[in-house]
Amino acid sequence: xxxxxxxxxxxxxxxxxxxxxxxxxxxxxxxxxxxxxxxxxxxxxxxxxxxxxxxxxxxxxxxxxxxxxxxxxxxxxxxxxxxxxxxxxxxxxxxxxxxxxxxxxxxxxxxxxxxxxxxxxxxxxxxxxxxxxxxxxxxxxxxxxxxxxxxxxxxxxxxxxxxxxxxxxxxxxxxxxxxxxxxxxxxxxxxxxxxxxxxxxxxxxxxxxxxxxxxxxxxxxxxxxxxxxxxxxxxxxxxxxxxxxxxxxxxxxxxxxxxxxxxxxxxxxxxxxxxxxxxxxxxxxxxxxxxxxxxxxxxxxxxxxxxxxxxxxxxxxxxxxxxxxxxxxxxxxxxxxxxxxxxxxxxxxxxxxxxxxxxxxxxxxxxxxxxxxxxxxxxxxxxxxxxxxxxxxxxxxxxxxxxxxxxxxxxxxxxxxxxxxxxxxxxxxxxxxxxxxxxxxxxxxxxxxxxxxxxxxxxxxxxxxxxxxxxxxxxxxxxxxxxxxxxxxxxxxxxxxxxx
Length: 500
What we know:
Blueprint lengths: L5 H20 L3 H17 L3 H24 L2 H32 L14 H16 L8 H9 L1 H4 L7 H4 L5 H4 L3 H38 L6 H32 L17 H7 L2 H12 L9 H19 L3 H21 L4 H6 L3 H24 L3 H11 L8 H8 L3 H16 L3 H4 L28 H20 L12
Helix pairs in contact: 1-2, 2-6, 3-4, 3-5, 3-6, 4-5, 10-11, 10-18, 10-22, 11-17, 11-18, 11-20, 13-14, 14-15, 15-17, 17-18
């Protein structure tokens, strides 16, 4: 079930919230937990009741490994648990990818399995791997099954994150948290949900047709003229930004309706002045997971510069593969690994300060931000394209190297592009200069680690969100606008990260 669907807004959320409020009134802590578990399982089963069996089996088996690790403190049990999780993920997500590559390289004719990718398998697998590792490291006290189950299946973060650690949510599954000021939680949660819904339906889906048109023709083998290539690349840059940002705001808002704070997962990444900074602000919980459970165990930066670069590249390539079973995702990870290596090499360059000292501060900051954003846009082309040929066609067009063959194919897109560029200018102003939702509500702690949120230079406290009639009216108008637009859409588009 998609957060931005009418079924979710009208049929799922109201009864789930009413049931929670009743159990909250009765002060029944365990009842609240099991109610949220039941609602989350219905939420997941709406997509595929059959795959609910896999989710429940994963939860049960991993809780068994957790208990076994507590009892034995065995590294072998930990290894078996992690291997089982990764093997399950590999089978469902990468088996057909592996078969296709074996057939291509060896000239074999192995039959494809045509496995349906279970929704959210990457997210709940990583979450449970981190739980087993933390159990082995002694970071978790004994946890009962109900709280563990809710930690994994809580609908607000189940499908596309954030990837929460046990320390993020399990301590919050207590009556004292559920009993917090309900009207404040509803106000904060509702505001975040409204902002996220608007970002998804109006802003992200508003540029989706441009993305589909350009990348569709490029993947079909058509050459792409320069303006069309830039329109497609920038449209996707904005689409994935507002799609993922909107999802994160909605996930945070939904959790807060029930008194739960989730970790920050998206923090104005296009304002970054380096790729290192970008990855501190884009999909923050995935970056944290890859750092803590892959990069650091590989040795991090403690074994010399060359090993550090190898570890960075390995981490980013595996991060790219995590997003999907495709060589374009692998190459996207490879590109970001290369970017990070260049970033770290530049940071450690002797005499860098003297070189930069001759450049005026504003120009230096603008250049750093512009170069970083350009690198991200180029990488997004491989992330979105269905094939290398499609990605290269768009990059050739962006570089002005594509001959303009067939005007008819691009006539509809390029006949009047002035409104498109005005739209891009408005979206660019939002992502580069406007405060994000976390900044608007920062005073009321919408996330666990709110101190890490950026601050827009022009943003002043008098413009910040507060529980008032004015803000309630404004955000109600935002929500209504999004819902009206939802009725007007021909097809409901899923969140991009639902595919991972």
